[in-house]
Request: fold
Amino acid sequence: MRLAISIFIAKCAGFLSKTILRKSGETIPGRVLLKLQPDAISKLARDRKVILVSATNGKTSTTRALAKLISKLGPTVSNSSGSNLNWGAATTLMSKSEFVVLEVDELHLAKVARDTKPELILLLNLTRDQLHRMHEVKRVADRWHKLAQDLPETLFVGDIDDPFVAYALNGANKSIKVSFGGRRHEDGAVCPSCGKYLNWTKNNYKCSCGLTNKNPDQEYAPASAAIRNANLANVAGDAIGAKPGPINESELERSVVRNFGGVEAKFRLTKNPASWREALAGVKQSQVLLILNARQVDGIDTSWLWDVSFQSLAGKEIVVTGDRALDMAYRLHVEGINAKVAKDFSTAITTFDRGTEVDVLAAYTAFFELVGA
Amino acid sequence: MSKINIVRIHNELLGTYGDQGNAEVLVFRGKFHGITGNIIDVGYNDPLPTNGDIYLLGGAEDAAQLLSLEAINRDRETLDLVIERGAVILAVCAGFQIIGNSFWAAGKEVAGLGLLDVESIPGEKRFVGDIKIKSTNLDIELTGFENHAGRTILGPSATPFGKVQVGHGNGDGKFDGAVSGNIFGTYLHGPILARNPEFADLLLTRATGRKYSQITDPLAVQYANWRRKVTK
Reply:
């Protein structure tokens, strides 16, 4: 079947899924297209400037920021809703444009990159996440490293304060190593390159095999994840020829404010120890709602809750809900923090007084269900 | 009021799968029984303390598992000393493999600490998911989460830690873990003591030599029972 006909059928499928099933329409067309034309991604990517973004945390917001910068250079398409597996890439590539900015899942990066032969790959961070699917952080890092070795024409940009990113970039022929003055990595006790115990001096590491964050090409001041990602988007954009954008923390922290019956709820997305720590640091209100699920994309194991300290919530009014509310309640209980367990979100939100504000830290699936951003 | 030292061995290496919470739960449960628990974190470069009552090892990736074994072997005499003294050891997943006779990591077979008569070998399929076992030591069901590719074979002098009811455990679908005296090995994450507070109480009893009365912590009971009910 010709590519054009396959695209037409895929678009029809997407239209139907959007209008009848009310889905985002970013996944179905790509699925159909790849079924009809397994090599559609490489065909559609030919002669276009493709930029890929991958990380454990911050992919969606950083891809949006980077696509915004790139769009000033020419027509740009991007998978804006976070559909980041190969069919999401296929759907996005169906729209014509000069530039393509794609967020790609960590495990799918190698496949999508080999098909699209990108100009640039931006790597933000790699930490523990969905271990039921990733199995080991090192396994993902090895794939990234191998990918960088296999794509000598691609420019790799990344934050080398993360040893896993540094290891990936070490495999690259062309790279821009960025540092934010060092940062201790919670899962960084072992050198991902040689397997020796990684020597850290405060926030910097230097392994006898040579892996270090002390040799950056560009250096910035230490900052929150949101600001780091904004800077990394600017570095990547600059490499393509785009002007840097303003560093706007709130735009990149992926929070959404919604009003529920007079209660103003500020939602933050949380999905693994690193994103929980970042979100907990941003809690400002005395009322906090925590929503824990353990569906596939949330990670089906909740053991990691015990790697996060919730001490900063002590003394606040805490309500927990979600499929795994009890896991959260017991974890808090052992840390000496009392929480009310509510059976669902609507019950939980009504426990707060009208006219007050509440910080909501929501699991991935809960975030999408409730605010759909 | 008794005091116990809980030694968390190499959490920086053996902390990938959330097992560090086992130490916190021991301290928490201890409080109800009038025990003051003191957590001692041991790093890769630190000597193994001789004054521990309970020693904990958790799950890890291959390179970290090898580093941890190497560091413990530096203090082999200390380890033998504390075991002779009757200290309690709880080793989970990669930690369980470390305390066996041998295991595979990063593509090669290595000799373990030999505290339990088990051998671990690589398997083809990784076992990932909820697990429920009937405990050998306690007449109850224990729940947790397993995430491992290794298979463990029990030697003639090994007793299984539990009988698998849901999940895979050591790999044959029959047994999970191994136990010998005060040394416990298992594949259960969760962390296991958070999901199964009765097991935490058993470890405290073994560590202090005292029998403790039942305690009242409704949330712990509610959580443990709920996990037992839904793990099927």
Summary: The mean pLDDT of chain A is 92.
